[in-house]
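User: Can you model how beta-D-glucopyranose sits in this protein?
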Amino acid sequence: MLKKTMLAFFCVATLQLTAQHTDTEKMRRFVNGLMQRMTTEEKIGQLNLLIPGGAAVTGSVVSTDVETKIKNGNVGGLFGIIGAERIRRAQEIAVSQSRLKIPMIFGMDVIHGHKTTFPIPLGLSCSWDTALIERTAQIAAREATADGINWAFSPMVDIARDPRWGRIAEGSGEDAFLGSQVAKAMVRGYQGRSNDLKDISRLMACVKHFALYGAAEGGRDYNTADMSRVRMYNEYLPPYKAAVEAGVGSVMSSFNVIDGIPATGNQWLLTDLLRKQWGFGGFVVSDYTSLNEMIPHGMGDLQTVSALALKAGLDMDMVGEGMLTTLKKSLQEGKVTQKQIDDACRRILEAKYKLGLFDDPYRGISASRASEILTPANRAAAREAAARSFVLLKNDGQLLPLKKSGRIAVIGPLADSRRNMLGTWSVSGDWQQSVTVIEGIRNAVGSGATVSYAKGANIADDPFFVRRSNMLGMEIDTTEKRTPADMLKEAVDMAKESDVVIAVVGEAADMSGESSSRASIDIPESQRNLLQALARTGKKIVLVLFNGRPLTLNWENQHLPAILDVWFGGTEAGNAIADVVFGDHNPSGKLTASFPYSVGQVPVYYNHLNTGRPFAPGDWSKFKSDYLDIPNEPLYPFGYGLSYTTFAYSAITGNKTGISGNGKLELTVRVTNNGNYDGEETVQLYTRQMEGSIARPVKELKAFRKIFLKKGESRDVVFSLSANDLKFYNKDLAWVFEPGKYKAFIGTSSAQTAEFDFNAGK
Ligand code: BGC
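Assistant: Here's the modeled complex, given as structure tokens:
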């Protein structure tokens, strides 16, 4: 029987492989045939990606004469066009007026949803729910393809350990293991589990920004990244690799240098590592003018850097037209080869083939698909995703959840700010469709409670800061006529008349995101003043915090009883916030980036190396690795987040004392919901290699499980560890397992775990 099943399995697997092989062969024949008819200029044209304007423009250059260039076969793709009809018209020019009628590919920054906007990726990662994350990408793909788009510039998987860097908002935080799980989930969501891009509700994904972009020195965007290969391989590269293994169709190179060479022209990165070591078979696109930016990086003039990029393995040039305008000359001068141009062109054409663009250049765009956008079901998914992204940072005296009764004062500049609900990089999202906090609260309480609202303060008062933060629109309202003192007085008077205050404060949407680095990561002073004045009323205060990055919250942590981090929750943010505040949804989010105690600690992350002079908390002495003025630990660590209920963990039991050979060690903890609500808990498993050939982190996440326990319920959670799970890149960058002493940690956060010592042998 078993034999028969195995035989059937092998037959199906062989058939699938044969079918794949024939498909690939067909594609090769088609693309070769087409390329035989193409001139060198037309081939170079395929490498050119333009933005006709109208959407987010993140550099100084905007494309001109786009229509003529399309007709001349000088454009391989366009991005940033909003609306299916506009895309259809642009495609029509390519497929009816250019000589070879090659369709264009249409890209877009679909980052956390399309029209239905989900929480910012940092928030979404705090759900630790990869099925949910996959579903959000799937919905985004459906909506974006209905809008004519076929290529998403996502997932962004840059590991980030510096909250000063605004783009920490766009990724999954500080951990490579979690980041890899999220990367895979997003690729699956966009491209489908079988990676069948002919399915017109799927998008080709583009993993970015390859590589190390999140390690910008000083947290300043576009800045230098520099690190050892050991760190790179173990801590920064895994999520990109995971996306490649999940079959991502394209990769975007980053702005920064790696070992002194800009990523966009870095042959080691784009060819040796990506293609040769990892076996990536898709195409590589530059970031916005990152090819041209190699000039100020000091790599030569436009012709030189364009040739460098092509030779390094870059296939498509975003916006800067360096390839378009110089590669022919470089070919004539022998600085690049015809093969290099052909290889790049072939990869772009293959991507178009995989997307089915040669069969239907419009990929089924039709007016009827408009009904797939912003549907009630999609909005419901956004509401759920938002509630699951929130992290309860503090809840003294079980202040939350609130009752839907009494007098509730909702105070703060983000309580009634539709403009700020979606967060950074919501290019296609329409903020006018979003639900504000005050609306969400009013929807939830109905006539049960008296809800009053006061703005209390501006998001920020410093005109210099406000001007810079408002570059993408008036997120910090500058039309306010009242003085800060007047607003504050109104708020304090209102608080005094209330039973409880919900203070809705934090960052405006584009205070994080691209080119939004901050040296101070406090809540802006105007709002800190408001919080202090509210605290002086002696009323109970719930802080609902909007932020695109970890903030320094010492004062808030010391003086306010409840803090709920809601990031930027997207279209349904207001309703989701009300769901959590009033207990219709019990929060279960856990941080994926540590919240520093002080910005002076940055970078602070849980999986650091030990030093030779480690510091033991509570045991300060001279000549240890510590600070005179602050603790070593972050205020809120990686993996931390509360629930309305509480969970008790048993000690860890193992089915053996260690791992030998191919064996597995099963580690069990009993988790009990011993609080007053049903709730979800993310049980986290970490390990530490106690001795090795190189210094190893004090903890590394290896697995996690999200479980739901009814009030009073207990469950055994079993993790199984093998030698494979303990592998890492050694000093020679070999992926190895080293026998020896290990510790396992299981718990509710990276800082609160039970321990288990074990040996792993050959
Ligand atoms: C960003 C990318 C983005 C691109 C296109 C760049 O400035 O770094 O993340 O995909 O613009 O909008």
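A couple of observations from the model: The chain has a mean pLDDT of 96. Residues 56, 58, 109, 153, 208, 287-288, 514 surround beta-D-glucopyranose (CB under 6 Å).
User: Helpful, thanks.
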